[in-house]
Amino acid sequence: MQTENKFFDDFARLAGGAFNAFGAFKTEFESQMRQQMESMLARLKLVTREEFEAVQAMAAKAREEQEALAKRVAALEARLGAQADSPGQTEAH
């Protein structure tokens, strides 16, 4: 009986040690993978969310301004076209 208990005790100690080793291996593996991913991302020169949103807002504002200017140009061209078509307008040759 004593021998069987010693065997199971030794086996339990061995299994516990293996689980501890696997836990340490897992932690080290996760740490190494995190460092590798951070290194790869740093090399990609990705922008932050804040930088992206700032540029997106600038682009939206520029688009709105461009559309407003396009409307103004169209209105001015229409006025010029109407003046050219009106009678009494003389053209210089």
**Shape designation:** rod-shaped
Mean of residue pLDDT values: 86
Q: Strand portion, in percent?
A: under 5%
Largest sheet: none
How does the helix and strand content classify structurally?
mainly alpha
Low-confidence stretches: none
Question: Which SSEs are present, and which pair or pack?
Answer:
Layout: H1 2-44, H2 49-85
Task: Describe the model.
The protein is an all-alpha fold. The protein folds into two domains: 1-45; 47-85. It contains two helices and no strands.
Describe what is shown at a glance.
With 93 residues, the chain is mainly alpha-helical. It has helices at 2-44, 49-85.
Identify the notable features of this structure and list them briefly.
mainly alpha, 2 domains, 2 helices, 93 residues
